[in-house]
Amino acid sequence: MRGQKRDNVNVTIDGGKIYGGCPNRMDPPISHIVTSNIKSIKVIEGPYDVENFGTLSGIVKAVTKASQKGFSGELNFNYGSFGQNKESLTIQGGNDKVRALLTISRENSQQYKDGNGDKFNAQMKKAGAQKMNLYQKKYENMDAYDKFSLLSKLYFYPTKNQELALSYTANRSSNILYPNTPMDAIKDDSDLYNVKYTVKNLGDYSKKLQMLYYYSKVDHPMSTKYRNASNGKMGEVVNHMHSKIYGAKITNSFDIGSTEIELGADYSRRTWDGRYYKKHDIPNGDSINNAVTKNSALFVKANRKIGNHSIETALRYDNTKISSDDKLNNPNYNAISGYIYDNITITPSLELLAGIGVSHRVPDGRELYFKKKGVLYGTPTLKQTRNTEIDLGLKKSFENGYIEGKVFYSKLDNYIYFDNQLTKNKFVNIDAKVYGIKLSGSYIFNDKFNIDFGVNYLKGKKEHPLPNQTDKDLADITPLRGLLTLNYLPTDSTKLSLEFIGQKSWNDFDGDNGEEHLPGFVTANFKFQKVMTPNLTFTFGVDNILDKTYQSSNTYNDLTLLATGAKRKLGLNNPGRYIYANVKYSF
Predict the structure, then answer these.
(1) Which residues fall within 8 angstroms of residue 14, CB to CB, at 6 or more apart?
(2) The pLDDT of residue 568
(3) Contact between 181 and 198 (Cβ < 8 Å)
(4) How far apart are CA 136 and CA 336, in angstroms?
(5) Rg of the chain over all Cα atoms, to the nearest angstrom
(6) CA torsion angle for 33, 19, 506, 451 (degrees, to 10)?
(7) What is the pTM of this model?
(8) CA 401 to chain centre
């Protein structure tokens, strides 16, 4: 999102948070959400969020399915290339007082092939990966992953203005392969608990009062078990990671005249801990020694319409304390963040959007304390990052569509960056800037044919090269990228879509810190959907129709990727042609 990844992009699930266990980002937060459980997703780009801790450059708010009155359900069967299969069942029901929902799903896949027809080991060999990092003969064709998920919810309505929502999500994944890294995940188990109480219309100064408690944990052991390296002197090497977070939030909304006010308090405690083992069970030092991040915050938001202006202003104060059992340094961070955003209705069909905001993100436990083979890669003296950003946008609506353009400029002070040349304390603070433009739109030609499109262009620069380096390009800045979707609806129950995704070659990259030139690509995807009956829907699709071989992600050394014979990091090709079918039955 706007050139940002990892902890620079915030993620919430039903208002709660989860952090992956892997320091190498094998399991980012969204990997702990099953897509079939999603009801809606809201994306806020930029520093325009004060309700959640750590929103630096944007936030993704995922909301899972909720139960309805009565009784209903849904069965999904999905099968595709590379032996991929997924089955899910949802049942829900209730009345005005109590409602419940239960969703279970299971999915499994063999290794995918890239456009050249290569599985994982073949890709690794072609790139020149060392033999020790290749899969053992008996494992080189093993399945890529297996996953089971359960989502359960209970809703209670003691009165018409009260709701108590309880939810629990369990994810159980096993034997997940990550071929361009040194280890695979033996398992990746997570549990998410959420309690939310909402009461409306308590009085003049409480239009909506909401209290939230959440707790999540991740158990993530990584291992060399399936690689040739496990036959060496060290035997199987494991880095067993645990991640936990619990938090509470209370918000109260009310009106003062024509101004809507929201006041809130936020608290969270995040723990990240990891241990190395050799020959599977012999302790061999810490990777992260119980890093604890405690955050306390107060925030306020105000919305008001003045003439043709719809203005939102917000402010947040954070106090964050971080420590580890290594007692290297226990930093204490204070920050005031906020923004003002104005949506101006110039004419009924023309809107102007303008915003300016400031946000902060503290270093995480990995950036402060991570160790590898006894060497401290983390830097315990890191400062928090500050993002100062300006956004401008224009949206023009037509009778049959719209077009929207946005530009932004983001100034990043003390941006946390990975310095590849250092032998220890590899994370450093730098000053940088990211700016860009995005165009998107949709147009309906008639009741049978419409199009959607989007184009995104970014630039990212360091203010100065790192010491003893010359490259000012910022890592993770995706080149010019475009999307065009053609939709054809021959009948009310049938829809065909043809989608084109294109990306320019990766010419501006941080070669001093592991990135490399990647060629551009254009891929095409096809999807056919037919509502057979009111209860039965059939979908057929082909992704990457032309079986292109391409990479969409670069090799910035912030991630531990395998070295190759060409002294480069191993990037992984995207999947080749993928054919799938889905049957959904509702009852």
Answers:
(1) 62, 63, 64, 167, 194, 196, 214
(2) 84
(3) no
(4) 52
(5) 25
(6) 30
(7) 0.93
(8) 30
Tokens at residue 500, please? Answer: 């084109």
Report how far residue 380's alpha carbon sits from residue 481's, in angstroms, rounded to the nearest whole number: 37
Instruction: Decide: 47 and 335 in contact? Cβ < 8 Å.
Output: no
DSSP reduced 3-state for 466: coil
In angstroms, rounded to a whole number, what is the distance separating the alpha carbons of residues 417 and 3? 13
Spans of all domains in the chain: 6-65+78-586
Query: Which residue, 40, 168, 21, 172, is CA-closest to 105?
Result: 172
Structure tokens at 198: 């909402």
Which residues are registered as beta bridge partners of 260? 255, 303
**Who contacts 138 (Cβ-Cβ below 8 Å, separation ≥6)?**
none
Going by their DSSP bridges, the two strands 521-533 and 536-543 should be labelled as antiparallel
Reading the block at residue 573, the tokens are 């090709």
Q: Which two tokens stand for residue 60?
A: 């993704």
Q: Tell me the one-letter amino acid at 553.
A: S
Count CB neighbours of 177 within 10 A: 18
| Cα gap 428→416, rounded to integer Å | 6
For 223-256, letters b (16+ CB in 10 Å) and e give: bbbbbbbbeeeebbbbbbbbbbbbbebebbbbee
Amino acid at 109: S
Owner of token pair 């709660």: 16
Distance CA 563, CA 387 (A): 33
DSSP letters spanning 164-175? EEEEEEEEEEEE
Query: Which amino acid is it at 84?
Result: Q
Query: Cβ distance 391 to 354 under 8 Å?
Result: yes
Q: pLDDT value at position 280?
A: 72
**Type of residue numbered 87:** E
Nearest to 54 by CA among 333, 305, 302: 333
Structural tokens at position 55: 């929103």
Ranges of the chain whose pLDDT falls below 50 = none
CA-CA distance, 101 to 92, in Å (whole number)?
4
Q: What is the spatial distance between Cα 573 and Cα 320, in angstroms, rounded to a whole number?
A: 39
> CA–CA separation, 133 vs 123, rounded Å?
12
Contact assessment for residue 88 and residue 94, using Cβ atoms and an 8 Å cutoff? no
Give residue 1's pLDDT: 92
Length of the chain: 587
Q: Specify the CATH number for 6-65+78-586; select among 1.10.3490.10, 2.70.150.10, 2.40.170.20, 3.90.79.10.
A: 2.40.170.20
DSSP H helices in 256-401? 365-369
Which among 537, 577, 447, 575 has a CA at the least distance from the CA of 75? 537
327-378 per-position pLDDT tens digit: 889 999 999 999 999 999 999 999 999 999 999 999 999 999 999 989 999 9
**Residue 381 near residue 371 (C-beta atoms within 8 A):** no
What is the dihedral angle through the alpha carbons of 212, 218, 56, 435, rounded to the nearest 10 degrees?
-140
- Report pLDDT digits (tens) over 404-437: 999 999 999 999 999 989 999 999 999 999 999 9
